[in-house]
Every structure is written in structure tokens, then in C-alpha cells.
Amino acid sequence: MVFHTGEFSAPELVLPDGELVKMGSLAVGDDPFWGDGIGPDLRGLLRGYTGLRGCLGIVTKMAIKTLPFQPEPLVPTGLSPNTGLKLPEKRVKWINYQLPNKEAQVKAMYEIGKAEIAGAVTKVPLFWRAIAKAECKEEFWELWGKESEETIKNFFIVRVLLIGYTSEEQMKYDENVLNDIMKELGGIPRPTKPTDESWIKNADSAGMWLMCGSYVSVDYVIETLSQATVHGEYYAELKKKYTPPLMPDYGDPGWFQSFELGHQGYSEFLIYWDQDEDTTGVDHFYLETSKMNIRERFYTSLLGPHQPLYLTGPKYGPNYHEWLLKIKDEFDPLWVCHPPVPLAHDEFVERAEWMKPLKDWETPKKFPMPQWK
Which domains does the chain have, with CATH numbers? Predict the structure, then answer.
């Protein structure tokens, strides 16, 4: 059994004109071991959620980094809907730490990344704890009703997944390093179930629908860790205007975590509502979060190519939208590859009747939509 780290390197890219582009060490040989050096590196283009999506070409080959996984099997445990995988704690272990404040919480993520330990480092919403404990919808609301804005403000948990990739000795070393980091920051370890419910085996999907019957991630963003850790606070403030129909969550700022040893951050904001009620506010909240991201200069990814590019462009950097179109015209001057991306937002709005009266932007005439067949 192997474990995929999430890293990839040296891919092959087929351009719209059929040209094959080889990157990294694959450009100078048959060994794709190095994506960052020797040959050309265009991964910045490939990673862009808005920039690619099939509109600049198609990746046909890539190399991924894998490491040996621990030899003991992960044993299924529990009864539906509370099922999971029992972890062999000598090689795979979750540890929760309670931190004194958000500053320490974020600092812990940076320090864990610098130490190059842990398979996952995350902060999760407080109501997930109620989900994990509840056996039914009624019990969830009994548990959640005991929380308040005060308990939310004082909930600073860092949840760490340690994996002894190479040996039990590595596991012990990583845990000692982790404990040293947390001790310095005032982190206190809390009891944690030695099971996995979503990272290795998706066994928590039933519980995610428990509270209201409907939920969605209104936005999920991979950007810098400094942005990911504040992104949700703006969502929480805006959400107050749309509660109800959205579920009351006492201002919980959502979920954020560290990626690539602290070099990237991830934030996600989930919303819950009853589909049998008037859901107009759900749609309006979705649109207003996009406007908020533009206003506050947050990168918004869930809308993908449907975001108003000429509004987001100037916020992401000087003339971001103009550079993106120049790159598109260079790689695909005839716009034959996945049209109308990356300018799909106008088409998206035209298909959504409810959005038309809320649209308060226009596509500049100097950037007309390309004509394709």
C-alpha cells in the first residue's frame, strides 16, 4: 500500500494545436523525478483554478510522489451512520490540541510545516463535534443548542494527523516534535478517537446532512495560509444577514488547514439549510459572497470560470485578467479548447434567472467575448 503526498511533477501537456509540451526533468529525459528544475516549469498555469480547467490544454501524463504506507490494515469499525476505520496508532494517529487563542492556532500550523511533520493539519468548525456525537437530528440540535457565540470565540483546536511513513521510530520522533511545538504555544492535547472517517475513507457523508437536510460548500479556496485563516471570518459576518434560512452557527468562521508544509492554505465555508423552506436567501448569499471576495481581495475558487473575470482580475493583481487572456490567446488563439472558459461568467448569469436582477456588473466593451463555432 502506498500513500500519495499530493505532490506532482513533470507533467506532459497537449496544447490545442496538438503540440506536446514536456516540463521539468521530463523535458530532457525519460525520468520525471524533478518538476521544479532542469526543464521548463509551467505548473503555475496548470494549478490555476480559473486559469486552466481545460482551456489551455490537456494534461496527459504526470508523475506523483508516493511513499510506503504503514503495513497494518485499517480495520472498518462502527455501525452506520457512525462508521470509520480503526487506525493502528503506532503508525497513524489523530491528535487534537486546544490552543489558547487564534494567534497560537495559526502559529502552530506554520511551525508544524517548518518542522516537516504531519500528514494533515486542520482546524474544523465547532458544530462538527456535535455531528460526531449525535445519533440523530434531534440529538444534534440538543447538543448544538448548548453552544453560543462565546463558546465559538473560544474554540481554538488544531487537529493533527501523524503518519509514520517509514517506521514506528519516525512516528515517535514526529510526535515528540509536535508536542514540543504545542507545549511552547500553550497547546493542550485532548482525547481523540483513533479512527478515520473522511481522510482515508469517506464515511461521514451521512452525518453531514444530519442537521437540516441540505448543505453545500459555498466556497473553498487554496491560497496562502495567511489568507485562509481569515477568509471565513468575513463569511461568518455576511451569513448573519441570511440566517434564516441558513442554519444558525453563532458566527463560526468555518474550516481552514495547512497544505504543502505551510506553503499553501485551504479554507472552506459550509452552509446548511432546510430545502423545504424558502431558499431564496441561500442563492442570494452565494452571489453576495462572490462580491465580498472581490471587494476584500480574496481569491474565490468555487465559482471557477463563472466568476466575473473583469472584476476579480484587478483585485488579484495588476491586470490579472488581461494577462490571463494574453496567455489564452497565445496557447489557443482560435479558442477551440473548452470554450467559453475562462470567460464563462456571462453565460452562467444568463442561465440563472434569479441572478439577472442582482447582476450589478458589466463586461467592458474593450474585452468582447470571443466568437467560437
Answer: 2-68 (3.30.465.10), 75-296 (3.40.462)
